[in-house]
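The data layer described in this paper is built around a simple, fixed record for each protein. Because each token names a local backbone shape, the row as a whole describes the fold. We quote a single record here, exactly as it is kept in our systems:

***
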Amino acid sequence: MIYNTSRKKLALPEYGRNIQKLVNYALSIEDDIKRNRVAKNIIKIIGNKNPHLRDIENFKHKLWEHLAIMSDFKLKIDYPFEIPKLENFQEKPNKIPYKEEKIIFHHYGKIIEFLIEKAISLENIDEKRKEELTETIANQMKKSYLMWNSDEVNEETILQNLNRMSRGRLKLKKDFKFIDAKNIVKKHKKKRQSNRRYK
């Protein structure tokens, strides 16, 4: 028995080995007219395999490109579209310039820093709403903290971190109380268990 693992790797596995055999057959045809006719039939077949893509712009163009790829760009036919050359596929893509921004506390993440800066910048907002926003940020910091360390949480540390990250510009009321850690941990554990179940 011959296994696919021992066979030649397919250029486009989504079309299957039988389509690749048809492409190989087209490559073996010496007569130009017959080779063009076979190529058009292959396009019809691979088009019928993906009828849901027919409404997509340049659908036919993509099929001819796929035919060229499956033939390793060796199929000499009258392409109805300009087909990219093999060299274009061998070029290495340009590196994506990632922003290297420094995060003060990794367990809070960049979003918390953004929220703090946004809260500081809000000038046309009354004190009560600013306090509510600061409380929401503080509670979110506790949630993020617990994601990293579900055993214990030091609320005093979170308050100190908030003070440092906001440069002392966001204040909480003296009677402010954080959300209950037990509820956060329970929800987090349930989420982790459900994620494991569906992996």
Q: What stands out?
A: The mean pLDDT is 83. The two ends are 33 Å apart (CA to CA). Residues 8-90 form one domain. Residues 105 and 134 are 18 Å apart (CA to CA).
